[in-house]
Amino acid sequence: MLKFLFLSALFGLTILAPSACRQSAPANEVAVPKPRTLVNAELLGTYTVDQLRGRYQGATSFLRLLNRYGIKVYRLTYNTINTDGRAIIASGAVLVPQTTQALSLISMQHGTISSDEQAPSYYRSGSEAYTFGSVFASVGYIVAAPDYIGYGASNNLPHPYEHNASLASASLDMLRATKEFLSDEKVNWNQQLFTAGYSEGGYATLALQKKLEAEALTEFNLIASSAGAGAYDKPAFMRHIVNTRTHGNTDYNRLYLWVLLTYDRVYGLNRPASHYFKEPYASRVQANGRQALINVSFNEALTDSFRQAVQNGTDTAFIKAVHDNDIHDWKPLAPTRLYHGDADNTVFYFNTQNAYEAMQQQGATNVALYRLQGRTHATGIIDFVLGTFEFFSTMVRE
Q1: The pLDDT value given to residue 32
Q2: CA-CA distance, 284 to 280, in Å (whole number)?
Q3: How far apart are CA 73 and CA 47, in angstroms?
Q4: pLDDT at residue 39 tops 80
Q5: What DSSP string describes 56-86?
Q6: What is the DSSP letter of 147?
Q7: Hey, CA dihedral for 234, 238, 240, 245, is it positive or negative?
Q8: For the whole model, what pTM was predicted?
Q9: Is 152 in a helix, a strand, or coil?
Q10: How far apart are alpha carbons 176 and 234 in whole angstroms?
Q11: Would you say residue 309 has pLDDT above 90?
Q12: What is the chain's mean pLDDT, rounded?
């Protein structure tokens, strides 16, 4: 138990997992091969158990005990689409345990990263895939870790932060590419899919789950899903940020700013910073984009005209963009857990409470809410990952 507690505290941001089932063509039809999603697979390295154990020192030294198999690490590139519908090449990492036993697949959907170098497909020291993805792979999971659009092979494009459609499509296409890769390499995958993620990963998990259940049930067998601390209720979150005095934390404000600028760009609003922000914040945003310093409550930095237009519903273009990215009000099919700390002052707890209540009203009977008493956005990670591990362990089918 203690081992997994430490692992969850350190690993924290996201875990995801897929599976596939095939349908044969009717006897009177000729099956037409679908275009491949996978473009290329490159072996980045092969690592022995002793090499993996050597990565863990001090407080993480107990992780050496979890290393069971050596692993091979690959960089995949694959076809997907950008936010404007154009075809692009994206990337991700796949970590494969060196064993012939049947293996489950975990897709690790990373949380917010501050630089391209942290993307999984580089597999660099200190990255989530290198450190903790390797632990899971050495335990005996295939690990698939998508970079998302804007990182790795697509780093010439801006990352569409908290954009529902592109997070879902890039993640699903990574699963398709991984499935093709595993078939090519004849890896003994047990064809089961589990999805999970925390924070941006939690939001992306529900977006992916909804897309899977709507469009890809014949491709993947989704067993269960676990999402933590995601900004699912975009309209409620937007109203709260616009109307309510918040912490004024500059790092949190940069996240809110990143979402606003993403929607402004993706939905073709292309407004000047002065439309949204007062001075001196408009000039800072104009000069520094999402890295601009906003050191007051976010709503205090907004122009009165923008706040009023959101409040009275006259800014229909911006409001439509926000509603287009709402992911809280639908009916999941697979067993789903929603985790959130009720002291979270980054992504506020009402996002998960509202999602749970809306799903119940839609008729979902297999969605469970786990309210983490007193946990913040950071401290809730431990409970989320440990709970997710236990949840998935009970759902694995022999």
Answers
A1: 67
A2: 7
A3: 8
A4: yes
A5: --GGGGGGGGG--S-EEEEEEEEEEE-TTS-
A6: -
A7: positive
A8: 0.88
A9: helix
A10: 28
A11: yes
A12: 89
How far is residue 176 from each of residues 1, 35, 100, 167, 237, measured CA to CA in Å? Answer: 34, 11, 22, 14, 32
pLDDT at 67: 85
Q: What residues form DSSP beta bridges with 54?
A: none
Position 21 pLDDT exceeds 70: no
The residue written with tokens 């923008």 in the block is 306
What pLDDT was estimated at residue 128? 75
CA angle 359, 349, 5 (to 5 degrees): 100
Span between the terminal Cα atoms of the chain, in Å: 23
Q: Position 227: which residue type?
A: A
Altogether, the residues listed in the chain come to a count of 398
CA angle 155, 265, 213 (to 5 degrees): 75
pLDDT at 107: 81
The more confidently predicted of residues 175 and 108 is 175
Closest by CA position to 36, among listed 149, 167, 176: 176
What is the C-alpha to C-alpha distance for residues 206 and 197, in angstroms, rounded to an integer?
9
Interatomic CA distance for residues 237 and 37, integer angstroms: 35
For helices 250-266 and 316-324, give the axis angle rounded to 10 degrees: 100
Residue 372 Cα to chain centre, angstroms: 20
Give buried/exposed letters for 104-125 (b at 16+ CB in 10 A, else e).
Answer: bbbbbbbbebeeeebbbbbbee
Angle at Cα 298 formed by Cα 84 and Cα 119, nearest 5°? 45
Q: Residues near 252 by Cβ (< 8 Å), separated by ≥ 6?
A: 246, 345, 346
Closest CA to 107 of 173, 176, 17: 17
Rounded (10°) CA dihedral 372, 378, 111, 3: -80
